[in-house]
């Protein structure tokens, strides 16, 4: 073997049936290559199942430095204090190692790490000196017991009486809990639900076993900012004073296409006057950090600002809308103050549950059709039998428009701001495919594209069908007397509402799977139109007619029309030049995507006739 080779040559026996399957693939140069590939994929798959994402050293050091900073804030003395520090999902001990490197000289440290992976614990033991105590177990339900009983035993053995001084972790994200689901349920996790992430459960556990006035520091998935994590945010706001929230986006972890964040909390009674240090890492700064030209600490010092914790608590869904600093808060409040919501004016639906590829498969047992599964086996949701997928039972029902005996179909990529391209059609009559009711599609309707940054919306006047990645909004009869569908579209596509949605949810940069939720759209504030003066109503009616004529004729909204529309929306919301300067400063911070570039085609001066 050549010196320095990364591979070790071994001899193994392989079952005959596995060898036959390998040879069937016929895509590898040789069997050794095939076996190596299978082993690599197996390791990756196991890591995904356990939710393991190991912490890079620079991030661990950054987190340890912050813990050290906050310890100084709360301790304030030079005495050599003793601390019990726990990582309930320690992996190879990178976070605890960083704590040791940062704090070993001035403190008596007792480092405890728990992990389900025996090899990871062994590595952690070799990385950290004698002060490390490794426990091979599942922290969520240790010893095969509920968390209350299991941690009671662990703490008794470790002589931990009042809880841990610091708990730090990069917990498993989205781990498979099938094997211990019952213990999770019996452990009475408040945050456990069908949509919860395992990182949520680790946060809840850690708050429970953390000492009063202890510090908690977690690396968590970006989903902590999503609307469906309201319960998690409320728990943190109810039980702690949040010291720091950092939002770092994707690429922090190599080969992991998921954004991450850091949250640091002090377990104490929340103080209404407490300010949270907030920091979003811009894309350019992150790229420089990854190249070694910058550091997280230096970037933080340039971009951090403070937000009253009470503001997070007072928002709908307890949103951590940390992008709204003092310079933007006034404008955001002007929009948010309106009590009516978009959802009060419309019915909302989604289209056919099928991707734009239109591939379907028929069950051999009950003859009903389903969307094509990712693997080669169909598990029929109707008769619960399984069928092998082959050319004998598959079909494609979405085609390029026009096609005989097909209806027009709009998919997500067909929808842009004030524009719909009619490219596809769909064959009906496949028993089992959920086409949805005709009344969903018939009549004028606003269509919003699910995927992407910001809202991309237009109106379909053709009663076309849509698929599942398109949100459908139809005006309620009770609202039709005082508002038009065109005005609602103008509001959705306005720069003011791009600002509101982006600041509410922090979606200002590209990520691997960006999308707008129906709830985000339904929660958009709408002014009380019955209070508008007559002159403004005349402008609205004129704008409505222009939008209808332009879109129904298949023409594009010109720059001049766009200016007039934005001008009307600004007047409806009572927004000033200063407000729009704030709105445009947020737009300028957003990543240069197509949807963002479209908003920059007109300026603040254009809107206000300067």
UniProtKB/TrEMBL annotation:
GO MF annotation list: N-methyltransferase activity; sequence-specific DNA binding; site-specific DNA-methyltransferase (adenine-specific) activity
Span of domain TaqI-like C-terminal specificity = 407-526
**Which reactions are catalysed by this chain?**
a 2'-deoxyadenosine in DNA + S-adenosyl-L-methionine = an N(6)-methyl-2'-deoxyadenosine in DNA + S-adenosyl-L-homocysteine + H(+)
Q: Please state what class of enzyme this protein is.
A: transferase
- Keyword Methyltransferase among record annotations: yes
Supply the Pfam families for this chain. Answer: N6_Mtase, TaqI_C
In the record, biological process GO terms are: DNA restriction-modification system; methylation; regulation of DNA-templated transcription
Keyword list, A-Z: Methyltransferase, Restriction system, Transferase
Q: Which residues form the DNA methylase adenine-specific domain?
A: 38-277
In short, the EC number is 2.1.1.72
Q: Which domain of life is it from?
A: Bacteria
Q: Which InterPro entries match?
A: Arc_rbn_hlx_hlx (IPR013321), DNA_methylase_A-5 (IPR003356), DNA_methylase_N6_adenine_CS (IPR002052), N4_N6_ade-DNA_methylase (IPR050953), N6_DNA_MeTrfase_TaqI_C (IPR023135), SAM-dependent_MTases_sf (IPR029063), TaqI_C (IPR025931)
Q: Which family does it belong to?
A: Belongs to the N(4)/N(6)-methyltransferase family.
Q: What is this protein called?
A: site-specific DNA-methyltransferase (adenine-specific)
Origin organism is: Yersinia enterocolitica LC20
């Amino acid at each position: 073997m050549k010196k320095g080779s990364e591979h070790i040559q071994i001899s193994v026996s392989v079952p005959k049936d596995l060898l036959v399957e390998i040879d069937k693939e016929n895509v590898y140069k040789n069997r050794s290559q095939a076996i190596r590939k299978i082993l690599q994929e197996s390791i990756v798959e196991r890591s995904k199942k356990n939710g393991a994402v190991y912490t890079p050293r620079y991030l661990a050091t950054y987190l340890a430095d912050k813990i050290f900073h906050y310890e100084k804030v709360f301790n304030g003395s030079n005495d050599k204090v003793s601390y019990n520090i726990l990582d309930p999902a320690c992996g190879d001990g990178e976070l605890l190692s960083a704590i040791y490197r940062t704090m070993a000289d001035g403190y008596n440290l007792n480092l405890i790490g728990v992990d389900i992976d025996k090899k990871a614990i062994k590595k952690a033991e070799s990385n950290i000196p004698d002060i490390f105590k490794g426990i091979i177990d599942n922290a969520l339900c240790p010893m095969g017991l509920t968390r209350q009983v299991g941690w009671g035993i662990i703490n008794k053995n470790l002589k931990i009486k009042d809880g841990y001084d610091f708990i730090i972790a990069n917990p498993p994200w989205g781990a498979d809990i099938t094997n211990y689901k019952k213990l999770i349920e019996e452990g009475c996790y408040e945050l456990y639900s069908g949509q919860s992430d395992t990182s949520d459960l680790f946060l809840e556990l850690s708050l429970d076993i953390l000492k009063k006035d202890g510090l908690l520091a977690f690396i968590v998935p970006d989903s902590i900012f999503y609307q469906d994590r309201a319960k998690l945010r409320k728990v943190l706001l109810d039980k702690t004073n949040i010291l720091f929230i950092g939002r770092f986006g994707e690429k922090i972890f190599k080969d992991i296409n998921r954004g991450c964040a850091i949250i640091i909390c002090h377990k104490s009674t929340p103080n209404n006057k407490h300010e949270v240090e907030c920091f979003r890492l811009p894309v350019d700064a992150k790229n420089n950090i990854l190249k070694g030209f910058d550091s997280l600490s230096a970037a933080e010092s340039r971009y951090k600002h403070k937000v009253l914790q009470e503001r997070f608590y007072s928002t709908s869904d307890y949103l951590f809308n940390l992008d709204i600093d003092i310079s933007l808060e006034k404008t955001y409040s002007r929009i948010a103050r309106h009590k009516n919501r978009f959802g009060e004016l419309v019915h909302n639906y989604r289209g056919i549950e099928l991707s734009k590829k239109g591939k379907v498969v028929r069950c051999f047992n009950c003859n009903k059709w389903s969307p094509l599964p990712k693997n080669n086996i169909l598990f029929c949701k109707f008769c619960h039998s399984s069928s092998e997928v082959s050319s004998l039972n598959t079909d494609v029902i979405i085609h390029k428009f026009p096609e005989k005996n097909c209806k027009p179909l709009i998919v997500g990529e067909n929808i842009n701001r004030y524009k719909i391209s009619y490219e596809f059609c769909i064959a009906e009559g496949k028993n089992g495919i959920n086409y949805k009711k005709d009344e969903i599609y018939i009549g004028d309707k606003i269509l919003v594209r699910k995927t992407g940054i910001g809202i991309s919306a237009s109106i379909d006047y053709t009663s076309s069908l849509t698929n599942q990645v398109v949100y459908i909004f139809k005006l309620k009869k009770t609202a039709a007397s005082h508002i038009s569908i065109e005005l609602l579209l103008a509001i959705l596509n306005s720069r003011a509402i791009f600002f509101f949605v982006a600041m509410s949810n922090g979606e200002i940069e590209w990520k691997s799977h960006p999308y707008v939720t129906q709830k985000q759209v339904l929660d958009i504030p709408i002014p009380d139109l019955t209070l508008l003066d007559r002159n403004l109503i005349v402008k609205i009616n004129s704008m409505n007619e222009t939008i209808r004529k332009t879109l129904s004729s298949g023409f594009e909204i010109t720059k001049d029309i766009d200016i007039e529309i934005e001008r009307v929306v600004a007047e409806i919301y009572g927004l000033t030049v200063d407000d729009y300067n704030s709105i445009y400063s947020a737009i300028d911070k957003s990543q240069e995507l197509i949807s963002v570039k479209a908003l920059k085609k007109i300026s603040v001066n254009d809107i206000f006739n300067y």
